[in-house]
Design brief:
There is one protein chain. This protein is α/β, with parallel strands linked by helices and 368 residues long. The chain has 2 domains: 7-11 and 245-367, Alpha-Beta Complex (Aspartate Aminotransferase, domain 1); 17-242, Aspartate Aminotransferase, domain 2 (3-Layer(aba) Sandwich), CATH 3.40.640.10. 36% of the residues lie in helices and 15% in strands. The protein is built from 11 helices and 15 strands. The chain has helices at 17-30, 38-51, 62-72, 88-94, 140-150, 201-210, 232-263, 291-294, 298-307, 335-340, 355-367, and strands spanning 7-8, 55-59, 78-81, 99-102, 125-129, 153-157, 165-166, 169-170, 177-181, 194-198, 269-271, 278-279, 285-289, 310-311, 344-347. The strands form 4 sheets. Strands 2-10-9-6-5-3-4 form a 7-stranded mixed sheet, with helices on both faces. The longest helix is centred in the last third of the chain and has 32 residues, at 232-263. The chain is globular, with a radius of gyration of 21 Å. The protein starts with 6 loop residues before the first strand and ends with a helix. The structure holds pyridoxal-5'-phosphate. Pyridoxal-5'-phosphate (PLP) binds at residues 61-63, 85-86, 88-89, 131, 157, 159-160, 181, 183, 194. Residues 61-63, 85-86, 88-89, 131, 157, 159-160, 181, 183, 194 line the site of pyridoxal-5'-phosphate.
Length: 368
Amino acid sequence: MKKDEQILVTQPVLPPLNEFIPLLEDIWDSKWLTNNGKYHKQLEAALAEYLKVPYISLFSNGTLALITAIQALKITGEVITTPYSFVATTHALWWNNIKPIFVDIEPDFLNINPEKIEAAITPRTTAIIPVHVYGNPCKVDEIKKIADVYGLKIIYDAAHAFGVQRNNQSILNYGDLSILSFHATKVYNTIEGGAIISHDKTMKKRIDYLKNFGFEDEVNIVTPGFNAKMNEVQAAYGLLQLKTIDSNIKQRQKIVDEYKKLLADIDGISFFEEIPNVKHNYAYFPIFVNKDKYGTSRDDLYNILKDEKIYARRYFYPLISQFPIYKTERFNSLAVAEKVTEEVICLPIYPELSIEDVKRICSIIKNK
Ligand SMILES: *Cc1c(COP(=O)(O)O)cnc(C)c1O
């Protein structure tokens, strides 16, 4: 990229247009645009195989997938969740008339801290909604133990965790349900899109009813559903995206390796190390700015980069619990999250980002 061009935090890889056009022609010929069409079925099968999950239901976006997952499990009352996420995680609770109870995160990988969950449970608690933030797996075994003791459901917001594995097992296979987002900014995209991963046939059926008005057949409605279906154009596009996902993730890894090499010896700048036995997807590259050691604040660094037309993003700032609409929902101390939200900045990362640009970004950070 030329020096005067802007660099955004992410940029989608699109499938080759010449491969997409024949699929569009096929859709045009069939005039079948949505409602569990041929490409929808193909993409469900292909994704279940790629992700190594038993059942997947495609959605028009991740937020509707999450709202539906909560409906599918009939969750009510209070739900324990993390303040350190994209705001949609909590919005999905609001739309289900559920009170979010925020619990602090762990300092290591910034996911919900299982040790803080029990103290937040009340008789009204029915579920836990953790987030695999930046695709780093939550402490799934500890969370499951607590959920089992208290009879709580678990829905993982796995919007960042496409393709992530732990001990050769998909991270999506933990919890009662997991949701994915295929938004244009995510590792794998269908322009807009999302999915719910489920573990038995009956649950998949219920989810598929819920996303299609509750229709069982022409004349029977089994549940008050709504409309959250993925259409055929998105599904066909998604099939093409699967062809390049592995090479795209490899390319992301190269970029992360380069960032880590070049930022390694800067005082006050830190980043995550790889987690043993985890296959990462390199969805994001967050760094953490210690103002005292680095000599410049996170926000000043954000602006220095911005002046160079490099648009890093402060994911996640503010915390969800800091938005006025959710401020009253705070449970107890969120000290770790409150510290991290002031230090984090996600640097640009996408498969087509050049190593030259990575070098330029790092030299700006070094020489600010
Ligand atoms: C992107 C995202 C969502 C929402 O997904 P959409 O497909 O954009 O609706 C939910 N949770 C998290 C953590 C996300 O990053």
